[in-house]
Structure formats: C-alpha cells, structure tokens
Input
Amino acid sequence: MKAVYINEFGGRDKLIYSDDFPKPEVREGEVLVRIKAAGVNPVDYKIREGLRKNLPYKFPLILGWDMAGIIEERGFGARRFKKGDEIFSYARRPSVENGTYAEFISIPECYVTAKPKSLSFEEAAAIPLVGLTAFQALHDKADIKANQFVLILGASGGVGSMAVQLAKIAGAKVAALAGSANVDYLKSLGADYVITYDNQDWLETFLKQFQKKPDIVFDFVGKETLLKAYNCVKKGGTLVSIAGQADQQLASSLGINFQYHFVEPDVSELDQLTKLIDSGKLRTYINKVYPLRETYKAHEQIETEHTRGKIVLSI
Output
C-alpha cells in the first residue's frame, strides 16, 4: 500500500514515501479501511521530531490520527458496518505506530462512525481531532453554559475554528484572539469580538476593552500566551489548555480552575458533531489539500503554526 512513515525522529527529511508498504491484516473486532483522506495536525510534526516521546511508539511509524474512508473488509465480530460504508475516525491508539498517512488502516470497529453525509472525504478528514478537542475541552472540561463569556486563544487554527463555533452553538459570548488577517474569518464563524495580537500586547488590549473577565479561557498556543491567560480568567472560572501544563500554584492563588486536555477517541461525540455538521450549524475550513506524496509540504505548512483551518492529505 501507499504510506508515509518514519524510521527515526527528526526533520521533514525523515518522512519516507512508499507505494510498497505492507498492507495491514484485519483482526478480530477490526475493520480494514481504505483511507481516502487524512487530516494533518501540529501534533504530527511534533511526534516526527521526537517531541512527544511520552507516547509509546514503534518504528516504522506511520503518522496521522485523522481519517475518512471506506470500509474494505470486516474482521470476525465486526458487524456495525458493511463493506462500502463511508466512515471517519479519530484513530489514535495507545501506541503511535499504525497511523492514517496510508492507503489502508486496520482499526477496532468501535473507533469508526458514519461520515457526515454533507461532507467530502477531505472535509470529513479535517474534523475528528480538532472537533473532538474543542468539544471535549468546552463540554467535558469546562462544562460550558449558555450566556457565559468565553475567550479563545489561537482561534483561527483548526481547533480554534471549531471552538468558536461550538461555543456559539452552546449559547456563549465569544471573544477570539488571532492575527489581524483572520478578523473577518473569525467573525464569519460567529465570534462576537476579535482581539488581534499584531504589534500590541493583546492582554493589555483585552483588559482595557472588557470590564468582565471570561468564565472560560481556551488556550491553543501555550508558552507566553498561556502565562498571560491566567490573568484573563475570572475568579472561579476555568482555563483549559491543550498546549501547556498547569502552574497549579498560580492557578490556586488566582482562584481559577486549570484543566490540561489531550483529546480522546469518542465516537458518540463524533456523532454529535456529525449532527451539527449535517444540519448546517458547524462547518470546517480547509486551507489546502496535498497529495500523500507531498506530505513534507503539508508538514512545512503546519510547522508554521499559523495555518487558518486545516491541512489535509488526499490518498
């Protein structure tokens, strides 16, 4: 099968394209999926560079956790889907090894669910990781409620784009932080306010503009942005980050609740996202689609960490 994999950690030069990689065997309880498109996420290049060695791994390592495709074969006991069904999945398993940058993947049937009918394979592949990350952070971690005030840091990327929409769907008032080039884009997603960080201290600008601090701050950036985020949350509010670990002493001194979040597979939540998508309430934005052979170009783009929406591989 076609696949992109690595045999060691390092730069983009470590990405190997092959059209003769061993096709996986389908085992009991699994389905073999012919992948039509795979999402590309910042975590992919971080794994490639060896920055996520806390996750169990094995070489040769096929990268990628997002995918949309067609059921090709069913293992014993896998009966929810039939051959030819269109599905999508957040395909992260405990060990990083058999990812979605490939023509086929064999995966437990409980990881897959029906693809949104209104989306192409490329559009569907852009949803699972970012959609679940935003949904779980807002609902499972922050317990978002209607009429709350939510600040989203790094709002124009894949996760941020989903978070803006999901927070609005939940009935919140949403402020979004991004570069000035993304103001109109974020307003089109429903953001009530957009704060830009170009040539200014965004925290100072935010505190001057708003008398009320947010109930929830959602951080996708980490580092200096996360440190500033502690000063944005109201006392008793929640700060959720996917990009940095907590300073619990600081959080406690400010009277805020800090939650670190690393997305987990959950097909029931994917099904909720599908209902929102097919009803026209939730949409995705694809920045660019690359052929599998040009995965190195997709990684070059995602490494900038200034990508609007999502990058997708067509397989």
Summary: The chain has a mean pLDDT of 96. DSSP finds ten helices and 17 strands in the chain. The radius of gyration is 20 Å.
